[in-house]
Structure prediction request, 613 residues.
Amino acid sequence: DEIGLIPCPEARYNRSPIVLVENKLGVESWCVKFLLPYVHNKLLLYRQRKQWLNKDELIDITCTLLLLNPDFTTAWNVRKELILSGTLNPLKDLHLGKLALTKFPKSPETWIHRRWVLQQLIQENSLPSLATKGNLGAAPVERIHRLVQEEMNVCSEAAGRYPSNYNAWSHRIWVLQHLAKLTVKVLLDELSSTKYWVSMHVSDHSGFHYRQFLLNSLIRRTVTDNNTLVQNQMVNEQNPSLQKGEESAGTEAACAEEQSVDLPRRLDEEMELCTELIDNYPGHETLWCHSDETLNNSHHSPAASHMAQAMDVDGLNEFSSKQGYTQETKRLKRAPVQDSLGPEMEYRFVDKVLSTCRDVDQARFATAYRKWLVTFLGQ
Amino acid sequence: MHVGGEVDVRSAYCAASVASLTNVMTPTLFAGTAEWIARCQNWEGGIGGVPGMEAHGGYTFCGVAALVILKQEHLLNLRSLLHWVTGRQMRFEGGFQGRCNKLVDGCYSFWQAGLLPLLHRALHARGDPALSMAHWMFDQLALQEYILLCCQCPAGGLLDKPGKSRDFYHTCYCLSGLAIAQHFGSGDLHNEVVLGIPENCLQATHPVYNIAPEKVARAVMHFLQYPVPSLDPA
Prediction:
């Protein structure tokens, strides 16, 4: 489940450089300068059609190459061909990639190939005739769910191996967007499962950015759902004969209610998390950034307002079609919200930090934050 | 970036850069591109690799430069972008970081600092009265200090930060950043700000293409002689 290089500059004994201990694979460093050029050369000769290799040899060679250097695109591409011709099980590449990432957690080519493989798997999933193949035991939905969970794990591991691992977190976002389809359930699940992680990695800007992404997606979700609800209401008003049964309308309203009630609470919880971390770990710019943005969201979130549903449909449409989440857009397009206690608490918090902190950076961030509170919240 | 490869904002810049220099821009070639790039700008003010991603110096430069080429910079929130990039200059080191809460790196001397000439131009075009006529909106001397004092390899070449080894990529972008920091504006408004002896002064670089401005002019003039290729088969 893990690979690594064992620093061993000389072959002292006449024995294999491969070491396998408790399911962890090690390669003694002296052999790499022989092994890598050898397999590399073999693959290139194959690609140049100067030397034939059969499928099994190809699988072995590319596997070796990629564990030594996973950014070798050609090797991944050979495996793509093998997958497309049906000779190689795509799940094997997910496993190979996972292994490579234990040593090379940033490897761009590994993540890119992984997305290609996942795309192949989703396509297979959507073709019902193929869904009964031997290696696909469970129902498609269950399968996707398992894939998503596994990807979350792989990303989490890689993020832990390298600080602010841009590629790992991008991949995580991509998976949510393309495999999990940004459902409310998965967004909420991810919020709770990453809470501990970010608390242990308070300078990891990528981790906190991920939480902003989750919260923003939830906000967007809520707006779209409210939009649908309002549209339905309008349609119902115009055409009483088309009105859905009371039960289903009631359920819809309940769902929207649930989701719109959740949001302010989530944002408040996020502010609490920020405050706690800022207190415990002075001087981390990421935490203050995150705090800024969360407060901005909770101050302007349409879901926080009961007036959200009364917003005219055009206004909502305009908002949800504008993908850019700039602060100006938010300020101009949202309807006024009910006053939250947020800003007052924030002032108290900042003043407390300023009077008690000894860390120079912390003081600087707190001062900047206070300025921002005054300017942007106008209180 | 290549067939079957990853999709991100860098390819938009590569395409826009090449197409504009070689005069192959057709109306359909960049249809929707500017809007897509604008979606890559996020709540931080910077631009990520794809929509939804964390703001990152390299991607931000590519996005903004591409939009400048496409003449669509106004699709961005320039104010939050300015706020983000100026926040990336490190007050102790003088160099720039690629993302919030990360370490300084010599190559961002170009990717980040290089945004300020682009922003200056865009804001000037909007008639912003507060713009300086002599300096970019970052500490030009501090950046030069970082590059000259911390990023040079004694054996030649430049690098990320002390302790790292030299490579061509860092050599290129440290020098490009140095050129940006030394030269404000052009023509009548040209203002040189050189740290240390006058011999430290480099030739100016074009803030969009990062090659000498004369070369940009020559390339454009040359390719304008040829008609824009048509996509219809002959």
